[in-house]
Amino acid sequence: MTEEGAPTSNFIRTIIEADNESGKHDGRVATRFPPEPNGYLHIGHAKSICLNFGLALSYGGSCNLRFDDTNPSKEEMEYVDSIKEDVRWLGFDWGKREYFASDYFEKLYEFAVVLISKGLAYVDSLSAEEIREYRGTLTAPGKNSPHRDRTPEENLDLFSRMRAGEFEDGAHVLRAKIDMASPNINMRDPALYRIKHEHHHRTGDAWCLYPMYDYAHCLSDAIEDITHSICTLEFEDHRPLYDWILDQLPIEAHPQQIEFARLNLSYTVLSKRKLLKLVEEKHVSGWTDPRMPTIAGMRRRGYTPAAIRDFCDRIGVAKADSVVDLELFNFCVREDLNKTAPRVMAVLDPVKLVVENFPEGEEEWLKAENNPEDAEAGERQIPFSRELYIERDDFLEDAPKKFFRLAPGKEVRLKHAYYVTCTDVIKDAQGVITEIRCTYDPATKGGWSDDGRKVKGTLHWVSVKHAGEVTVRLYDHLFAKENPDEVEEGKDFLSNLDTDSVKTLSSVFVEPSVLEATAGQRLQFLRKGYFCVDTEDSEPAKPVFNRIVPLRDSWAKAQKRK
Ligand code: ATP
Ligand code: MG
Fold it and tell me: By the 8 A CB rule, do 484 and 278 touch?
């Protein structure tokens, strides 16, 4: 949904509106966001969150937060907590609607007993390997297990003993009895339960029998009276199973499963398994590393919830997979920060500029607007003095004609200050420039000339005497390849990691007010991009800034060229 204005239409909204019209769910809209707590949420999940919560909001419905915690081995409380924090930070509220699939274990077991009693499920004792062999292939039908014709009595007995812990992992599974010759492999007697002697983060050791995703998911949806169960495309072939299970069981609700294309983003991996690998093998500093596409990493980097929601709205929902250009995301981030981030000056790669005709030991405080895009942002005072820092690459000794920055004999504007003209350059024995000298024109205060004299370049600067010193981290894509999964034979996605994706500058000079920036605060460093005070590595009066995004807007430019 857009912040203001009408939500963008899509095929899911069309379905819901038709349902509301026909009274299919009595006009009710109930969605859910069902993460498995086995990792941190990422920007792909944000798409699903915005969609599910957004639909509930715009149709006066409800959206549940449901932890799909049916697999005990990979789930942890840390993930549950992080997921809640991330959904809340994105701006969505599930109120009291917080559920865990594990709370339904008893009910799900009872439903399985119903299926067995009706002759619609059986205990199979083939090994995992044999089950795979019996399943057949896309072109060949499967064949029936020798245990398929066990009687309901025998199955009920075995199933209760599976629950009681009489068998080892893998000794038996409970399978639905559907059709081993179905063209849809998901319908070839899929497993519903497996034995796992493992501790569960919520149910402890109460169970050694755990339901499979396909079985637990549709029933959890129905138990919660969900109307529209929205999932990603890879579940399209599971829909017949979703419907089959609900059709066989005495449960009134029958949610409609609707599939949409998952988000793929260039230069980014969005698989929890791969993100976990990056964390575990320490290719990044953790789940909150500012280069990670996790919500927690993005928050730390400085991206805003508004920008993420805007992005999710712009990409929309479709029925076909595609890869979204990361530059579209950066465009949304700039759009938001341009309106909200105060401007300040910081010199990342400093060289000294001495103003020869400004008296030694004196200083002048100049007026500077905080944000030209925000009339309410007000002004601040910045100090000017004889010795300044400017960016090293804002000066060229042998400048080409089109170089509009500083060069011998050239005049430029110092932002919010004066026009200056370069008079001399001083170098060390190696020929490295140590100091640039200039004179300023006192009649150009504020950076404007009354005599109509124009300058093409405007530079940012910081007064040496007043400068604060901060650390700045500049980021590049975590992966060097647009598609990180495109790898040479025998290698994996890690071979595409960019080994140089963060550059730390430990001596960046800033105007004095910047030292007061607090953790999480976002600023625009003029001409250098948007930066955010790191929430983990900063200390009082010693902020560490993460660059959120540079100012250059290649997305908008590329769109214009098209
Ligand atoms: P796993 O591989 O562990 O199942 P998952 O990415 O599917 O990972 P879930 O925790 O099951 O993670 O996902 C929760 C919800 O988020 C699901 O409804 C899923 O469809 C949705 N989701 C996950 N990844 C994306 C994505 N890239 N784009 C859109 N939705 C996604
Ligand atoms: Mg999943």
Answer: no
Residues within a 6 A CB radius of ligand 1: 34-36, 38, 44-45, 47-48, 231-232, 262-263, 270, 272
Q: In this structure, are 448 and 329 located in the same domain?
A: no
Average predicted confidence (pLDDT) for the chain: 95
Closest CA to 73 of 281, 285, 276: 276
Domain that holds residue 104: 3-262
User: 35 C-alpha vs ligand 2 centroid, how far in Å?
Assistant: 7
Task: Name the catalytic one among 24, 28, 36, 482.
Answer: 36
Question: Is the same domain home to 294 and 312?
Answer: yes
Quote the pTM value.
Answer: 0.94
| Count of domains forming the chain | 3
479 in the same domain as 439: no
In this predicted structure, what is the pLDDT of residue 74? 75
Annotated active-site residue 481? The verdict is no
What pLDDT, on the 0 to 100 scale, is given for residue 3? 47
The residue to which tokens 């400004």 are assigned: 358
Verify that 22 and 112 share a domain, yes or no: yes
488 is annotated as an active-site residue? no
For the CA of 233, the nearest ligand: 1
Q: Which of 232, 236, 258, 268 to mutate to test the pocket of ligand 1 (most atoms within 8 A of CB)?
A: 232
pLDDT digits (tens, 9 = 90+) for 537-551: 999 889 999 999 999
Looking at the fold, whether 27 and 39 belong to one and the same domain comes out as yes
Identify whether 115 is part of a domain. Answer: yes
Burial annotation 389-417 (CB, 10 A radius, 16+ → b, else e) = bbbeebbeeebeeeeebbbbebbbbbbbb
pLDDT tens for 446-467 read 999 999 899 999 999 999 999 9
Residue for token pair 């042998």: 398
Any domain includes 267: no
Could you say which of 32, 194, 272, 415 is catalytic? 272
- What ligand 1 atom has the least distance to the C-alpha of 48? 30
Give, in order, the Cα–Cα distances in Å from 537 to each of 83, 291, 298, 357, 393.
23, 15, 15, 41, 29
Pick the residue whose CA is nearest to atom 25 on ligand 1: 44
Q: Which CATH number does the domain housing residue 431 bear?
A: 2.40.240.10
